[in-house]
Each structure stands twice: as C-alpha cells, then as structure tokens.
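Hey forum,

I'm writing up a methods section and want to include a predicted complex as supplementary material. The small molecule is adenosine-5'-diphosphate. I've pasted the protein sequence and the SMILES. Can someone with a working setup run it? I'll credit the forum in the acknowledgements.
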Amino acid sequence: MPESTHCIGLLLGTEEDWPTAFETLIDRLGTIGGPGGSRHRIEVQRITIEPFDLRDRPRYELVVDRLAYWYYHPREWLKKVALMDDVYLLNSPFTFQSMEKHAAYCAMIRCGLKVPRTVLVPFKRPPDNARFAYTAAKYNRSFDLDEVAESVGYPLFMKPYDGGQWVGVSRIADSAALHRAYDASGERLMHLQAAIDGYDVFARSLSIGPETMVMRFRPEEPLHNRYAVSHDFLTPQVGDEVVAISRLINAFFRWEFNSCECLVRGDEVFPIDYANACPDIGLTSLHYYFPWAIRTLVRWCLYCVVTGRRPQLDLDTRRYFDVGDDADMPYEDKLAAYRRLADDYFEAERYEEFCAKHLADLDEVVLDWVASDEFDRLLIDTVRGLYPAHEHEAFIAHFRGLVGQWVGEQAVR
Ligand SMILES: Nc1ncnc2c1ncn2[C@@H]1O[C@H](COP(=O)(O)OP(=O)(O)O)[C@@H](O)[C@H]1O
Ligand SMILES: [Mg+2]
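Reply by user p_vandermeer:
Happy to help. Structure tokens for the complex are below, copy them as they are.
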C-alpha cells in the first residue's frame, strides 16, 4: 500500500499554545493507518496571508480556522476553498457568517429548546444611509422600550444579536438601566432576553466533531478560574441533555468546533449562547481539560482527512424541523431524535471504530507529552506571554497543579 500525505492548515491569530500542542502531537504520532491497510502521513502547516488567484489549488485538505471571524481576507480565501476545492473546514464561514447568535436562537426555538424569551429591538442609532430618513418616516413604527422590557420581565439581559466575549452584554434590573444600556448600544442591534435567575449550574460544553466535554463554568470568576474541575456536577440525565443540545446545534448548522452555554435550574436546561466560531481552547483557560481538547481535535482532524470525509455546506433543516414541528412529540423524544440525527451527521459510530483501530496509541502519546518537560516549557511560555511578571510564579504553579492532576488521574487508569 502506498503512503499518502495529507496537509492540515492552521489559520491563526495570536495563539501559540494549542497550535504547538497540535503540531507536536501529530508529529509524535507519526504515520498512521487507515481503511484497507492504507498508510497516512500528516503534515501541519501554519497558513500565511498573501494574494491568491481564485483558480489556485490549495495544498490543504483540512483547515482549522481561528482568524476569519475578524480578518476578512482569509475569510474570503476560506470561502473560495470551500466552494471550489472541497477543503474540510473547522468551521466554514458559510455556516457562521449568516448564522450568528440570532439565527441560532431562531432555529433552536423552532427545534423546541428552552431558549429564554428573546426580543430583537431596532437600532438605537440608525444605519448611516441616505435612504434611512425617508424609509423610517414611512415604515418605522415607534415603540415603547419600557413596554417591551416589562413584557420580557426584569431582570433581563441586553446583548448584541451577534455578540461574543461578553462585549456589550448587560444585566438590566430596571427602566433606568434599560435606557442607559440602550442609549449606549448605538449602532449595535440588541436582543432583550429574559434572565434565567437563580440557576444552579452554568454548563459550558466544548464540542469537536462527534465529541463533547461538558464543563462546570463560573462566569463570575477571573479567566484562569472559570472552568472548575468537577466531574459529577450534573445528573446523568441532565448531562445527556446538555450533550444532545450541543450536538443538535452543531449538526444543524454544520459547526465542527463550537462551545455551547446552558444554564441549568432544577432539572431544566436553558441554552443561552451557542454560536461560537472560535471557541476558547487556551491552555490557561481549559487547563485540566486542555489535553482532552487537543487530543479530540487531533482525532477528528485525522478522521476527516484519512477517511476523506466530504464537507457539507448545505443545511438539512427539514429533517430537524419535522421533529421540532411535531406538536405531539414530547421534549425528551425530540432530544433523542436530534441525537440520532446528529450522531448520523457526524458518523459517530464509524468515528469511534476508526479511533479504536487507527489511533489506539494517541492517548498514550498525549499522556507522555503532557507529562514531559517540553509541555512544561509550553506552559511556562504561555503564562509568561499572558500575565505580568510578578504573577508568573503563582500562575505557573496553579496550572502545573491542574494539569498534573489530569496526568495523575490518567496514569492511574
Ligand atoms: N438569559 C440569561 N440569563 C442569565 N444569564 C445570562 C443570560 N444571557 C446571558 N447571561 C450571562 O451573560 C453572559 C454573557 O452572555 P452571552 O449570551 O453568553 O454572550 P457572549 O456571546 O458575549 O458570551 C453569560 O455567560 C451569562 O453569564
Ligand atoms: Mg457566552
């Protein structure tokens, strides 16, 4: 059997930690097997930004994108390679640019998820367009912001319809705060969303292809301490529900690599934020969970290139809406049906078989590396790059402790 070479491209911004981890693990893994006794060599390259001819053929079979959400030249390159060259993308800009938070709320409400009541209000400051004055005079209906807010109920959240990273998000308790926040929103389009108050747990899950890690999140803590290392913080039933919701969202939108935030109150799960084109996988935020994230990213990328998984740009909304629109189907049954659709889309079973057969060594490779001095140097460099000098020692010890806990637990296994 001849050996084939596959090139994976990384489109990066400022991050160094996870790309180094990803490159190192693939390098340490070496040549891997595939279906029918085939052999596969994987190259990883960091993509540079330069003029491109629309007819150029890219050398990448798969690209992990962390840049296009704010840098548009590479975004347009991604569109070209998606449309013309069938490059497999985590994530495709076609699925994200038009499907921000607002679109995700809409689709998931129709699917029957418990999205809190959400209202989109018109711009505070109108778009700068010569046609606006005429159009608004003729068609804009004046509205009473207080009335809208009262109907949603206080407290509520005001947040940008396409937001991320908490920018422009405020918790509003009364009319005065409502007007202050709306006045400040300027040209940003805002949602008013009912608050899920008094929730028990904030569950933040990270999904990569057919795998999901549900983590306990503490938004009130500083960045390094937001993910708690906590194993049985959800009942098995609620845990499954969070996983089903995360997978549904990703399969529905063809998102490969995404995070999903759910608030859990009693045994009810309320998804509030789940359109994240560039989910956080930093070493200093995920710490204990970082090895899982990198290993899973390696597994999914290798599965896709070695099996030649075809990217799918078109959505298949009808199959999901047939479930969502069925007024007689209980919520639990809908979730089970979505789970089947999602597992089918992500080829969950075939993926597990592939990993068991061809990536059986990977967990050992990850463990060896995370326990090595090389990893420790990456940890030190990452902390030095992020924190002021007087905090280096404390944070290095902190993250060493958390990663060390992971290593200890794996070694016992
Ligand atoms: N409906 C809500 N109920 C309770 N808390 C909320 C709600 N919406 C947002 N929040 C809080 O505000 C934070 C930021 O809002 P989110 O929708 O996650 O926006 P972003 O995309 O900027 O992360 C959430 O992590 C959560 O702590
Ligand atoms: Mg959020």
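Some notes you might quote in the supplement: The first helix runs from residue 17 to 29. The two ends are 35 Å apart (CA to CA).
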